[in-house]
Design goal:
45% of the residues lie in helices and 16% in strands. The protein has helices spanning 13-29, 51-63, 66-73, 88-100, and strands at residues 2-4, 10-12, 75-80, 104-109.
Length: 113
């Protein structure tokens, strides 16, 4: 099966899975101390999730297949400006999110308010 993006570019889902695995291997292979940038203390995030919210996050992530997890990090472009409800581009963007599991869109262009 192929993912079709807003610009008409198609990527086989298997290729996306292979890309994700390759990225993970490369990241794991790079020694943590190999950066020429001086080490800085990483910022810490406050734990603000309730136990219920944290349980939902864990349950949701556990239920996602690898394919769905990859879909969450894939991004497509969306042209800004007015778009009618019956515009085929809108239909395609909604299908990417609903049917293909695309997790993000980059909004660009348009006109100032």
């Amino acid at each position: 099966m192929r993912l079709k993006f807003g610009n008409g570019y198609c990527v086989p889902k298997l290729a996306l899975a292979a890309l994700a695995m390759l990225t993970a291997v490369i990241v794991a292979a790079v020694p943590s101390g190999s950066s020429p940038v001086p080490a800085q203390k990483a910022p810490t995030l406050a734990k603000t999730l309730s136990a219920e919210a944290s349980a939902w996050v864990d349950k949701t992530l556990a239920a996602l297949t690898l394919e769905k997890k990859i879909g969450q990090i894939v991004c497509s472009d969306v042209t800004g400006g007015y778009i009618a409800a019956d515009d085929p581009r809108l239909v395609a963007w909604l299908a990417l999110a609903r049917d293909q599991g695309l997790g993000m869109f980059v909004l660009y262009g348009g006109t100032p308010i």
